[in-house]
């Protein structure tokens, strides 16, 4: 999803959690962390659904990753190219004079 953790990082985080929280309170801490993550996912889902409703028709398949500017621009360019609309072509004789900049 958002983070790319390997086995070494997970083991390191587990050891760090045991040191900071303590082995006796670690199970309760893990339960509380899971509840917080569950609430955050529900909040994100609700926000995404409300955004889809407010944007109106045409945005039913909206994903949060589509809101990334790079992804959005790429998707729009692909849509224009798929429709067959040609982009204006720059002729080789039209060059920008560096002295004018």
Could you please describe the fold and organization of this structure?
The chain has 101 residues and is mainly alpha-helical. It has one domain. The chain contains three helices and no strands. The protein is elongated, with a radius of gyration of 24 Å.
Features:
101 residues, mainly alpha, 3 helices, elongated
* Gross geometry: elongated
Catalogue the unreliable spans.
none
Gyration radius, rounded = 24 Å
Structural class, by secondary structure, is mainly alpha
Number of distinct beta strands:
0
Overall pLDDT confidence: 79
Major sheet size, sense and barrel closure: none
Instruction: Estimate the helix proportion, in percent.
Output: 55-70%
Described by its quaternary structure, the protein is single chain
Terminus-to-terminus distance: 44 Å
Total domain units:
1
Q: DSSP helix count?
A: 3
Q: Secondary-structure element order, as H and E?
A: HHH
The portion of residues forming beta strands comes to under 5%
Brief sketch in words of this structure:
This protein has 101 residues and is mainly α. The protein contains 3 helices and no strands.
Secondary-structure blueprint of this entry?
Blueprint: H1 7-21, H2 26-55, H3 69-83
């Amino acid at each position: 999803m958002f983070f790319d953790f390997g086995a070494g990082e997970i083991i390191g985080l587990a050891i760090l959690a045991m040191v900071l929280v303590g082995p006796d309170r670690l199970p309760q801490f893990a339960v509380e962390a899971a509840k917080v993550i569950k609430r955050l996912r529900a909040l994100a889902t609700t926000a995404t659904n409300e955004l889809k409703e407010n944007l109106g028709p045409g945005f039913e398949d909206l994903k949060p990753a589509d809101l990334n500017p790079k992804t959005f621009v790429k998707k729009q360019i692909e849509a224009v190219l798929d429709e067959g609309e040609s982009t204006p072509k720059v002729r080789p004789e039209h060059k920008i004079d560096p002295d004018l900049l």
